[in-house]
Amino acid sequence: MVSENRWLKLYVLEGGRSVNIYCVGRNYRLHAEELGNEVPTEPMLFSKPTHALIEMKGQEIVLPGDRGEVHYEAELVIQIAQPYKKGMKVDELVERFALGIDFTLRDVQSKLKKKGHPWLLAKGFPRSAAITSFQPFQGVEASKQVEFSLDINGKEVQRGKISEMLFDLETIIQFCAKHFGLGTGDLIYTGTPAGVGAVNDGDAFCLRWDGKPMGDCVIRLA
Ligand code: ZN
User: Per the confidence metrics, is the pTM higher than 0.90?
Assistant: First the structure.
């Protein structure tokens, strides 16, 4: 827990403001369809508490084992480098990116959806926002050419690239800024491609950018 908390402090900025963690739901057509959801006509955003953040650096990550299926969702994560001002472009605002996993309690989420309740219980639990180390952002156009992927136990389960997003980075950024505010350090999980599935106890995860590992972990369900 100590190292986990120390790492989290990196995300609390001077002045005591914590970063916001925004996530985009259903941002890849095939993923929306695989869960039987309608393809959205405007971005669908939710957020996670900062307690959800956990860096993937080869260690065990403990996730809930008593609340039904936990699903993995591999995603590109961008970090906002300065306060948003109207008209700013993605390449001005984003200096670094990571890959991440939006862990989701899928059975809990299905029940919440049926009741029309918020998703927080299914999406906001501790360590539900796993994230790799950061890399310099090479710009939107260059990033569109590169595929990211998730391996579990050495077998690829998800692969995607941001050119396949329903709502591109600029649209997502403008949407977040308009409706919630967007400032230095804020993180945006930009949605997952098709191939999501249930996590099993002991699974070894590895997120890759252009085939190169960016972060890994082993899952412990408890
Ligand atoms: Zn997601």
Answer: yes
